[in-house]
Structure formats: structure tokens, C-alpha cells
């Protein structure tokens, strides 16, 4: 009896002792995971952080973590278009190039082999002992991936330290945007408004209408009245870095939409409304001047600004330190931003396996209000920003775990060179299409149009939707031959047919697909365009095959 009483007392003392110990003796991470504290790991300064070691060996046939065995020379930025394409193709071995002409990377991406191999290694490790993977390795390595990506989108450790606290790993921009739009509707007043341009991504429009109600989801008319104005901007802004006139077109459309809302509702303010911007539009491949628009929206109207940057990671030189707002108006100046929330996909131009994306927010108040609840609520919802988004149930996290290996690849081949090559190759690809589809447009400049001529005058001649410098650096809309595309009053088409429809676009796209050419056909303002994507692995002959196939329609 005495021994039993002593054991009971000992157990009570043990329980009391455990309850008063530091967190280092109990669960440190979310839920009951046997991992280090996610929030502490993400906040550690760079000089104090120790990256976790991989729990498996890199396959022997993938030297140096599958980084390509070649590196573009320092003169690559001045080399001819498509000069290195065949070398980059080694890193994308799974695409069936013998059968397909693939100019649609912008749709769902194409994964680098280095990412696929790393993801495969993680899946094998998972199946060798599932609890070990989930309990003791997964979260620490997810944090490491998040830290690596923050370093990629910041330029100094001061900014990186600030941005890490507001970084979340998500599966894709769509899931993150559900949290943004749903959170704004939940936190706003009864009739809180959300604004978006009519050229925005389609699912974002549906989210706004679903969460806010159709009457409070305000579509900003742009395509019909304002988009044609962009064709005329290039002659006056070609040598200007600020692109003021481009921004003014978008701002004018925003002003008109807000004026219409305030006049109809009788309200004098839209402060607190959400404005969604696409950094690069999906349907029209336009590169929006988000900094200028966001600055105006916040200073003039007090709006919350969220950017859908699905296409931006790798293709654009992102700097979250200058893009993101901290919420402290006194800090607004030359080095601080005006974007409240930024989301970007890794599976598109960064070329990760599908299932990896990022959400950034440097404003603590917005993190604790609009972003207090992820699209899927789970164990980490109350434990911190990264924790609440990181774990959304038992699923395949290998795409997110592959991010460090993919980043190693891009750094090894030089990110700046990659961006230069993508844009140079796209411009050359557009020139190839123009030379086949519109051979007489530049007859006064010789037998054909060189890339420089096309770049400067393509939109004025109606050959591209907007000037190439206003298109994304790796995607553009090129007008199909006149006999297919139809015409409008804003183009120089000799064939003026009735306006085309999305049904016409589908017919052309299906025809090209039947000829093993994968490229989307877009109908904008009644005219048909091919939206061509150009990553570093695309080649000149692919653009030629597209050009010839379309001429057979």
C-alpha cells in the first residue's frame, strides 16, 4: 500500500514537473508532430539557421543534386535567340518532343527533372516509414523550402527577415486566393466590396461572386474600352522605364468603375474594399504595372490590394521587400511597397512538380484578420502564419519539398540569364509567326520584319494584342492569319470579317491539336490570337511548326 501511494505521488510530481517545464520538453510544433517549432525555425536569422539534412542519398545518376552538367557562358545574354534551347531541353526529358509541338507552358507548366527526382525520393522515403516522415521530417523540411524561396524573392537579409514571418506554403494560388477573398468577405462589413478587372483570371471572378455576392463583386470594364488604348502607348513610352501611360490606362478604368459604384450606391468611400490584380494575366498575357496601380488604389481609395502572381515566379525578378506593404503608412516611401498580399505558383515558370505555391503578406494586421483562416482549417490554425497554412491534411507534400533542389538548379544556370533568354526567344518566336502569318505588313522595311521592328510596331499593326514590352516576358498573344482571325476597327487587317467567338477559338485550337500542336487560341475583342508561351527549352522550329499548321486551317 505504501509503495502504491509513493508511486501515485511520484506520478503526480512528474506530471506537475512536466507541466512547468519549457516547451523544449513537450510538443514544439503544431498538433502532435514531433518536429521543431515551425514558427521559431522560419524566424531564425540566416546566420543562426542550420538547414536540415536530407534523410536519403541523392541518386547516383544525378550528380550535384541533378543540376545540369553545363552552365551558360557569361556571353549568353548576348547570344543568338534559341542558342541554348537544346541544352535546357536535357533538363526537361519527359516531354514527348517527337510527337508534340508544345508552346503552352503557361497553362500548367512542365516540371524540371531535378524536381521530379527529388519529389520521387521523398515519396519513397515516406513509404519506407510513414510516421517517421510525417512526425519528424516533413515540417522541418517544409520550413527549409519556405526559407529558400524567401531568399529567392528578396534582395537582402533585412527584408528576408521581415518577409519570412509573413510567408506561407500553399498548394496553388487558387487555394490561397480562396483564403484571401473568403477572409475579406468574412472580416468586412455586410456590403464589403471586391474589385477586379474583366481581364482577370476566371476562377478569381467566381470566388469574388461566391464569397461577396454578385452585387458586391465589382468587375472593372477594361477589355472593350481601355485595352485598345494600350496599342498606342509604345511610341511614346518605348524608352521610358516607368511606363506611366500604361499604368494610367488601368487607373482610369479603376476610377471609372469606382465612380459608377459610388454614384449608384450613394456612398462616398470604398475604403477597405479589396482590389485583385493579376501580375500577368492568364488569358491576355499582359504584364500589369502592379506597383503604380496598388500605390494609387491605397493612397486614393484606401483599398486592400492582393496580387495574383501565378505566372511571376522565375519569369519576373520579384522583390517582396519593395513590393509588400507593412501596413505602416509612415514607412511608405521609395523603398516600401503597396501590395498587401502576393501569391505565386511554383509549378508554372519555376517548373516545380504541381502542388507548390507561396503566399506573402508583410502586414501583421492583415495576417491576423483577412488571412486568419486558410481555405482548409487544420492543426496549425492558431499557431502562427506559416503553421496555419502549412498543414492542410494528409496528402502528398513532395512538390513543396522539392523546391530547394529546383532553386539550386536555377541558381546554377543563372536566373538573370534565364530571364533574358526567355524574353529574347519569345520576341524571336513572335517574329517567326508574323513572318508566316502577316508577311506583307512591313514591306517598306524589306522582305520581312526583323525582331526589333516587330517589337516596336507589332501592336500598332494589330499583330500582337498589345506592344511586346507590355506583354509578359515569356508569353504573348499573336494574331492568327487574317483569313482565320477576323478583324476589328483597331487593326490593319485587310480581311474584315464578322467578330469571332470563343467557339471559333476552340475550333482552331482543336484543329492545331489534331496536328500535334499544343497552343491555346484566345478570342479578344472578336479577334483570334495564339497565346504562345516560350520557356528556355522551346526552339525556333516549334514556332515554325505552329505557323505552318495554322496556315492549313
Describe the structure.
- With 553 residues, the chain is of the alpha/beta class.
- 43% of the residues lie in helices and 9% in strands.
- It has 23 helices and twelve strands.
- The protein has a seven-stranded mixed β-sheet, sandwiched between helices. It has a three-stranded antiparallel β-sheet with strand order 9-12-11.
- Strand 11 (521-524) and strand 12 (527-533) form a beta hairpin.
- Helix 12 (244-265) runs parallel beside helix 13 (290-301).
- The longest helix has 23 residues, at 130-152.
- The radius of gyration is 26 Å and the shape is globular.
Mean pLDDT metric:
88
Strand order of the largest sheet: 2-8-7-6-5-3-4
What is the beta-strand fraction? 5-15%
Spans of at least 5 consecutive residues whose pLDDT stays below 50 are 1-23, 61-66, 235-242, 330-335, 443-447, 489-494
The radius of gyration computed from the alpha-carbon positions, rounded to a whole number of angstroms, is: 26 Å
Helix content: 40-55%
Coarse structural class: alpha/beta
Per DSSP, the total helix count is 23
